[in-house]
Write a structure and sequence with these properties.
Four Helix Bundle (Hemerythrin (Met), subunit A); 563 residues; seven-stranded mixed β-sheet; 18 helices; Alpha-Beta Plaits; four-stranded antiparallel β-sheet; 3 domains; alpha+beta
């Protein structure tokens, strides 16, 4: 798997759109790097920029961005609500796929060293890239902010990891930069129905892991309580791996609790939102919604949807698009501005907009595409579509049963079946396009040169592998279709009686998809020379075909008996 990482630099400019655009534009001067998001904030005077690609190109793009920010931003004149100490305040690298956090650390160190050496900017390595424990926490590195940077640089204990440690005209202009490697961080603001920064801070202190300083009388203004060594006593907050402060946002006319969720496996977005609601209510306030700064992983929103569906005792086996809508409404992500999933969800931004996806076509468009005098989409793609329809019908009956009046205590039972069906449905939709791509690889192999002996051998090997892939795709379709029949079979037996015919149709669709895939497995073996592979595959395919036919007869008989 190709390693993909994300870089999320925060620059100290959120008001001058020309500067912001000029800084962001350098990202796309690096081949293979994709700019995903530019999210400016006027009150914070800060912009979060997000881009992705392979580690080497991303680090090159990050360097160019830091250099451009150094040219255009003068920290000596910068003011904003958000803590900051540099033109490019932070520049974290984040693993997305095919690379671990530990493997990313050397890239962060190389980037930091280059920024320090070539641009003369003091660099502090933080989070997983930190070279000593006290520097893991970004807040420690940034303590004192830009205004305290000259004094910080003079402290031997805070000598930068890379770059100059002396105050100069160049450093006065650029400030410092924190370069790190970390997990996906969610910058998440929760909206309150108050204009009071003090009250927003009170909620933030309730939530953030570091909590608050203990004061006499339990008030916010009482005398600080100290331990036997004279150190302030701290009351920890409710949420692990969370940082937070409160602030007033003039452009919205409200106060917000601004949170950094440093590990959403530890504290998910929906848990932070829920606890903020509880804390605000206890202090006489109300949460009106929330705001994402930058992008969010899809799974975080799906988890939020599942959380709220469980509370409602509703089935979790519903389509992804519907879950995203539920998450957006439950978290109030559209409170301040419309929430566009296509722009805010990382996985959606990574989709190739240039590629035609058969599974995303309308039914009319798909049938038109199939009817053309071209070999694809063909029987393999249609087999997967028909199978997906069968899985969807079983899923429908499971969801109807989960929501049936009088069956409330059985919602989890039917939800589990619907979740299975959703997994089968989405996998079959993927196979619609995989089948077409498999045929395309055969065509590519056939077009390879075949003049010399080496070219002929290379072409033969490529064609063998492409044909093997074209066999395995419909075999997978056959497997999933047969597996999906179990849902419709169960729904025909235990689902709501009024939908038994739908379950029966689901079984027949799945059986049709299975047999159609079986035909494609067989036809793709024509001219294939690996007899052992063919025997292994056909033994499995024959067994699956027999099972599909037997299950159809069994369910059809039981269904007809109930009608």
């Amino acid at each position: 798997m190709m390693p993909i990482i994300e870089c999320v630099p925060n620059i100290s400019e959120g008001r001058d759109r020309a500067k912001i655009d000029a800084i962001a534009a350098v990202v796309e001067t690096v081949e293979g790097v994709r700019l995903l998001d530019v999210d400016p904030g006027k009150a914070t005077n800060r912009t979060v920029i997000t881009f992705v690609g392979e580690p080497g190109p991303v680090c090159e793009a990050a360097f160019r961005l830091v250099k451009k920010a150094q040219e255009l931003i003068d920290m000596a004149t910068h003011h904003g609500e958000h803590p900051r100490f540099g033109a490019t305040d932070v520049c974290p690298l984040v693993p997305i796929s095919g690379i671990t956090l530990e493997e990313l650390v050397p890239y962060a160190h190389q980037l930091g060293e280059r920024i320090g050496r070539e641009l003369g900017i003091p660099v502090y390595a933080y989070e997983a890239a930190a070279r000593e424990p006290k520097r893991r926490n970004l807040a420690n590195n940034r303590a004192g902010e830009y205004e305290g940077l000259e004094q910080k640089l003079a402290d031997p204990g805070w000598k930068p990891d890379f770059g100059p440690s002396a105050w100069s005209d160049g450093v006065r202009r650029s400030g410092a930069t924190a370069v790190g490697a970390r997990k996906v961080l969610i910058a998440y603001n929760i909206n309150l129905n108050t204009t009071s920064t003090r009250r927003a801070n009170a909620v933030a202190f309730d939530l953030r892991e570091s909590g608050r300083t203990k004061r006499e009388g339990g008030t916010l203004t009482g005398k600080v309580v100290k331990d036997e060594h004279g150190n302030p006593v701290h009351i920890p907050g409710k949420l692990k791996a969370v940082k937070g402060i409160g602030w007033y946002i003039e452009e919205y006319g409200i106060a917000q609790v601004s949170l950094n969720l440093n590990d959403i496996d530890v504290t998910p977005v929906h848990v932070a939102f829920d606890e903020a609601c509880n804390s605000a209510a206890a202090r006489g306030m109300r949460v009106t919604g929330s705001e994402l700064v930058g992008l969010i992983p899809l799974q975080a929103l799906l988890d939020a949807a599942d959380f709220h569906l469980r509370r409602q005792r509703r089935s979790l086996g519903i389509p992804e698009e519907e879950k995203v809508r539920i998450a957006v409404k439950s978290l109030g992500l559209d409170d301040l501005a419309p929430f566009d999933p296509g722009k805010k969800i990382i996985e959606y931004r990574l989709k190739d907009p240039s590629g035609t996806v058969l599974a995303d076509m309308t039914l009319a468009r798909f049938t038109e595409e199939t009817s053309r005098e071209t070999p694809t989409p063909g029987g393999g793609s249609v087999a997967a579509i028909v199978g997906a329809m069968g899985a969807a019908l079983g899923q429908m009956v499971a969801n109807l049963s989960a929501n049936k009046r009088g069956w409330d205590e059985r919602w989890e039972e039917f939800s589990a079946w619907a979740v299975k069906a959703e997994r089968f449905r989405t996998r079959l939709l993927q196979l619609v396009d995989e089948d077409t791509r498999a045929y395309g690889r055969i065509m590519q192999a056939l077009q390879m040169p075949k003049h010399g002996e080496q070219e002929k051998a290379a072409r033969k090997a490529a064609l063998h592998e492409a044909t093997k892939g074209a066999i395995l795709v419909p075999l997978e379709t056959l497997r999933v279709c047969v597996a999906s029949m179990e849902v419709a079979q169960a729904m025909a037996q235990i689902g709501m009686p009024g939908s038994v015919s739908d379950a029966g149709v689901g079984v027949m669709c799945a059986r049709t998809g299975a047999l159609a895939a079986y035909l494609n497995v067989r036809t793709n073996f024509k001219g294939f020379e690996d007899a052992a592979f063919q025997q292994t595959v056909m033994e499995e395919a024959d067994a699956l075909k027999a099972r599909a036919e037997a299950m159809e007869q069994e369910v059809l008989g039981a269904t007809l008996a109930k009608l």
